[in-house]
Every structure is written in structure tokens, then in C-alpha cells.
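A.,

Following up on our hallway conversation. C-alpha cells first:
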């Protein structure tokens, strides 16, 4: 017995018109008619008789009997779909990560995940602020986020995995390449390529500019960290990067920023405590914590 056909049958009893049912489900009228005929064929009896003189639909005895049970079954469909959706969410794990955090830390996590978990893991790529909003709206179960202060949220557990600092990245043709450490006074009028507002890098640069308005001249913003590397490599400007996020192929140099006023960056794993955690989710939490904390 086809569930969709049952839905057509129940809606036909309610609306008393094939055309109206077709409009309701956004299908052709012939689709509804075929669905009713399929039910009748499966059950081996007529369910509906169309009285053309009175332009009304009459349920047969078999139709009335089916309606008694179909009404319950169709009424339970939203609950069934909701339960199936929850079950699917348990199979398909989601982990929020901003791009810079993803590039720096996810490879360490991936090395310790089983193949089946990797195949079923979806990385939700958003800014830390957007990920926090998704968590609060219950649209995401867990996320690794970056912040300039430790995060405390009601109904969530927040575990600090690492405390990092931004480094300067420059082209090998930059005038800054001979400096092992740089103070903010060395960055007066330096052209800066920055991540879009909402990303942790933008938060740190904004904090610096509050104290040293002339230190950094932002000329371009993007949400793509790879584009930032390309532009810096071409000596269009300088930028800032977390941890060890570059390699030899990037053709870039990193320089430590020698300034106590530059805020630390807290890398935290946050997950909801008001919901029961299944075994797979707990395994992912443990793997993320162990992989990043050990590193």
C-alpha cells in the first residue's frame, strides 16, 4: 500500500474534489486519480464512487473502513518523518568549523577518525558567530569556534581545546621579510587583506585598530582564506593567520607579532548539554578533543 496514495485518499475525502487535491499537493489531477486507482487495485475493491448528477464523492463500505485506519496512519506521518529525520541526523554527523580553524585543526582530527565517520561527517563552514547562532537555534549540535574570550553559554558545554595567536603572513618580496619579530609600530600604513567581518581574524584586527588606528590599512575583505594567501603571495598586502596554516607551496613567510596587546584566540568545542548524546556523537567529541588538545 502506497503512503502517498493514502494521503491523496484522505485529502479527497476532505476536499471532495480531485482538482483541489491536485492543487494541494502540487501535482497533476491524473496523478491523484492514478493514486486512488492504485489503492483500489492493491485492496481489490472500490473505495470511491463519483456521483456525477450530484457532483459528489461517495465512500463505499470498503472506503469507509479504510478511512477509519488511514486517518490515523496519515495523521502519524509527520511524527514518523520527524523520528526518521532525527535518526538520519544521528547517522550523519555535523561539525561546525570556520575556514581558518578548519584549515589549521581539522586535518589533525581527520587522522583519528574512522573511514565510516569521515564519510558521514559534514563540516558546516561558517563564521564563529554564525555557528554560535546555529547552535542557539538548535540547528547544529556541535561546533569548534574561535573567540578572543572564553565562551560561556547556557545549556551548552564549552571546552577550550587550544589557545593560539595570530602570526603575520607576508610575501617573500615584502619589505618585512628580514624581521624575525614585528611590533605594531612597524605596521603603520601596511596594506592588509582581511577575512570578512564575523570571522575571528577580523575581530582580532578590529581589536588592534581600536588601540592603534594607524597600524593596519585594510584594503580588501574576503571569506576565502586561500584567496588571502594568493593575494599576499603576490605582494598585494599582508595578512594574519592562525597557527601553522601555511606550507611551502604557499610561497609565504610567517612572522611573529611581538606585542602583548594582541589578543589570544581561544579554540573551543561547544555542544548542547540539554540533549542526550548518542554513541557516535560522543565518539566524535572525544576524537576532536583528543586530537586538538594533544597537538
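Then the amino acids I'd put at each of the 295 positions:
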Amino acid at each position: 500500500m502506497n503512503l502517498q496514495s493514502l494521503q491523496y485518499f484522505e485529502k479527497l475525502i476532505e476536499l471532495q474534489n480531485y482538482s483541489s487535491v491536485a492543487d494541494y499537493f502540487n501535482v497533476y489531477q491524473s496523478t491523484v486519480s492514478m493514486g486512488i486507482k492504485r489503492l483500489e487495485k492493491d485492496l481489490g475493491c472500490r473505495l470511491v464512487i463519483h456521483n456525477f448528477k450530484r457532483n459528489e464523492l461517495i465512500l463505499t463500505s470498503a472506503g469507509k473502513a479504510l478511512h477509519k485506519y488511514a486517518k490515523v496512519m496519515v495523521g502519524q506521518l509527520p511524527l514518523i518523518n520527524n523520528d526518521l529525520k532525527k535518526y538520519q541526523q544521528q547517522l550523519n554527523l555535523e561539525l561546525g568549523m570556520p575556514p581558518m580553524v578548519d584549515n589549521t585543526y581539522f586535518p589533525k582530527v581527520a587522522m583519528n577518525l574512522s573511514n565510516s565517520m569521515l564519510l558521514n561527517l559534514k563540516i558546516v563552514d561558517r563564521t564563529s558567530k554564525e555557528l554560535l547562532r546555529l547552535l542557539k537555534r538548535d540547528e547544529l549540535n556541535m561546533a569548534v569556534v574561535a573567540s578572543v574570550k572564553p565562551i560561556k553559554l547556557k545549556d551548552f558545554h564549552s571546552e577550550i581545546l587550544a589557545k593560539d595567536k595570530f602570526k603575520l603572513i607576508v610575501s617573500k618580496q615584502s619589505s618585512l621579510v628580514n624581521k624575525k619579530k614585528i611590533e605594531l609600530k612597524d605596521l603603520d600604513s601596511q596594506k592588509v587583506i582581511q577575512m570578512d567581518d564575523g570571522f575571528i581574524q577580523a575581530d582580532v584586527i578590529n581589536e588592534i585598530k581600536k588601540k592603534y588606528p594607524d597600524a593596519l590599512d585594510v584594503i580588501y575583505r574576503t571569506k576565502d582564506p586561500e584567496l588571502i594567501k594568493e593575494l599576499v603571495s603576490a605582494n598585494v598586502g599582508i595578512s594574519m593567520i592562525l597557527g601553522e596554516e601555511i606550507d611551502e607551496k604557499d610561497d609565504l613567510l610567517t612572522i611573529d607579532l611581538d606585542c602583548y596587546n594582541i589578543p589570544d584566540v581561544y579554540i573551543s568545542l561547544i555542544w548542547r548539554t540539554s540533549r542526550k548524546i548518542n554513541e557516535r556523537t560522543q565518539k566524535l567529541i572525544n576524537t576532536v578533543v583528543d586530537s586538538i588538545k594533544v597537538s
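The first helix runs from residue 3 to 15. Curious whether your intuition agrees with the design.

B.
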